[in-house]
Write a structure and sequence with these properties.
alpha/beta, Rossmann fold, 6-stranded mixed sheet, 23% strand, 246 residues
Length: 246
């Protein structure tokens, strides 16, 4: 069947030059955006039960901007003043620069990697004596604790936020030719919101092997998959599929 409408399970692009807009114009498609999941902060009252003391730590490891937001949110809710001596280790330079939202950047000890956690581990080797706090989501890459354990770092995982399903009830009577997913949590949200979901002629597209596995484990049909050697991006995979199924 011909594809005329697509729902992308992500927020609206922040730039007018999004490849999705270009694809819509090029092929005359209706492309809508709707996050299937969102982040909620763990309440301070609940965090206290973990008996994790921020000030027992001499350094913080940040894997994302979201982790930064929730670390400083939690410190504020707990009425903890983060000392100027605290060291910050960020997965990338962009993440490190985001710290300027909360601290005077040039007056702090800040270190960063090239975007990979494995690279940041190398940066941390000169700081083996630190006691690290690692703010994370309830769903996070197992590579993080595995690498920290492997190198013998002293650290504490702090679950400060959660990835939860969004309310999609307003979509119950809206049909799309293609649904696009980027995480297993997006598939979980689909099935939580629509437990009687029947795929029928709806095509499902996804990015990444873990999402593909979640789709198949849910008993759904995966029609469009990226990245591949021919389609390294989601929009390229969509374009190829649509052109081959006119």
């Amino acid at each position: 069947m011909k594809v005329k409408s697509i729902l992308v399970s992500q927020p609206n692009p922040t730039t007018a030059k999004s490849p999705y807009f270009e694809l819509a114009d090029k092929l005359g498609l209706k492309i809508d955006f709707r996050p299937f999941i969102h982040v909620e902060g763990v309440p301070a009252k609940e965090f206290r039960y973990e008996r994790i003391q921020i000030l027992d730590h001499t350094a913080v490891i940040f894997t994302s901007r979201t982790a930064i937001d929730h670390f400083f949110r939690m410190a504020q809710e707990l009425r903890v003043t983060v000392p100027d001596t605290m060291k910050y280790f960020c997965v990338s330079e962009a993440t490190a620069f985001y710290l300027q939202k909360y601290i005077v950047y040039r007056k702090r000890k800040i270190f960063y990697g090239d975007g990979k956690f494995s690279d940041l581990i190398g940066v941390m080797k000169k700081h083996k004596d630190e006691n690290f706090l690692v703010p994370l989501s309830d769903i996070h890459k197992q590579e993080i604790p595995q690498l920290l354990d492997g190198e013998g770092y002293k650290y504490t995982k702090a679950i400060l936020y959660r990835t939860v399903s969004s309310d999609l009830s307003d979509l119950s009577d809206i049909k799309y030719d293609v649904l696009v997913f980027f995480s297993p949590q997006g598939i979980r949200s689909l099935l939580q919101n629509f437990p009687d979901f029947k795929q029928d002629e709806t095509r499902i597209a996804c990015f990444g092997p873990t999402t593909a596995r979640a789709i198949r484990d849910a008993g759904l049909r995966l029609d469009i998959e990226a990245p591949t050697s021919q389609a390294p991006s989601m929009t390229m995979a969509l374009e190829q599929y649509i052109k081959n199924n006119k």
